[in-house]
Amino acid sequence: MSGQARTLRAGLIGLGAMGRNHARVLSGLDGVDLVGVVDPAGDPTGTLRAPVLSTVAELLALKLDYAVVACPTALHEEVGLELAANGVCALIEKPLAQSLDAATRLVEAFEAAGLVAGVGHIERYNPALQSLRTRLEAGELGEVFQVVTRRQGPFPHRIADVGVVMDLATHDIDLTSWVTGQEYRSVSARTVSRSGRLHEDMVAVVGQLADGTMVNHLVNWLSPLKERSTVITGDRGCFVADTLTADLTFYANGAIDTEWEALRAFRGVAEGDMVRYAIPKREPLLVEHERFRDAVEGKESDIVTLRQGLRTVEVSAAVLRSASDGSTVDVGPGAAVPAPAQRSGVDDVASR
C-alpha cells in the first residue's frame, strides 16, 4: 500500500473496555475511517457513528484495509485467521493468543499472506519507557544489573478467559526484553489463585536475560493498590519508570569520598543526585495507532511484530510451566517450551 494517500478503511472487533478505547482513537485518527464494529452485544453507549455488526463476515463485506482485534484472547486465533484469509491487515490486542500453538498459526497465516500485522503491546509507547529505552541505549546506566517490575491492582471483571500471566504479565515480559534489547534466557515462577477463579491471579517470576541481567516480575489482581512500576538498576544508578503517570526518575550512584574508616573498604554504592525528567506525554494508544496506520500505508514504522508477540507468548507459557512443575525453564534461542497442563471448563467470555 506504499504511496497511497487515500483514507484507510478500518474495522474494530470487540467493544469491551479496551475496544471502546480503540473506537475512540480510531474515530479521530487522521487518514483513517472507522467503517464498522463487531460486537454481538451491540453498542452499550450508543455513541458510535460507525455501524455495529454481529459477525466478522459482515465487517469483511465493508472492504477493510485493516482491523483491530480487541475481542477476548480465546477468540484471537479464530478472528485473526479469518482476517488473514481475506487479505485484511490486523492489529491484535495483547497477548497475541492464549497458547503458543495458536500464536504460531497466526504468525504463519499473516506472513504467508504478506500482510502487515502487529500486537497491541501498548507499554512500548508509554513516554516513560520510550525515554528509558533511549537512555539505556545511550549507555547512561552503564552495565545493567537488574530489571524489577511491579504490576498490581484489583481484578478487572472483563477478563474471563486467561489468568494474570497471559493478561498482565505479558506487558512486563515484552517491555523488559524491548527496553533492554535482550532476550530471556530462563524463568522460574510461582502462582496462586485466591479469588475463586479458574485461572491464577498472582505470579512472582525470577528470570535471567541473555546477557546475565537478573529479572523480577511481581504481578497480581489481588491488590487494592494499583501500581505500574519498572526499576532498572545498573552500574551508574537506577531508573524508575511509573507508567501510570508516565514519569521517569534517575537515582545516581554518588561518588562522595568518606573519611569514615569503617566505610572505606565498602565497594557498594552511595546516594547521589535524583533527576525527574520532563517528558512530552502523548497518549500511548494514539501513538500505537499512528504507528500501525503508517505501517499499513507502507511507511517505515515501529510496530510490535507478530513474531515479537509470539516470543512473549512463548516466555509466558514458560512462566506457567515453571509454576506448574516447580522447575526453572530454559527459554533461550531454540529451547522448546511445552505447554502447561490445561484445566477444563474455561469460563464464558465477554467482550474485552
UniProtKB/TrEMBL annotation:
InterPro entries: Gfo/Idh/MocA-like_OxRdtase_N, Gfo/Idh/MocA_Oxidoreductases, GFO_IDH_MocA-like_dom, NAD(P)-bd_dom_sf. Residues 9-121 form the Gfo/Idh/MocA-like oxidoreductase N-terminal domain. Residues 331-341 have a biased composition (Low complexity). Pfam families: GFO_IDH_MocA, GFO_IDH_MocA_C3. Residues 325-352 are annotated as: Disordered. It comes from the Bacteria. Residues 130-239 form the GFO/IDH/MocA-like oxidoreductase domain. PANTHER family: BILIVERDIN REDUCTASE A. This is Gfo/Idh/MocA family oxidoreductase. It comes from Plantactinospora alkalitolerans.
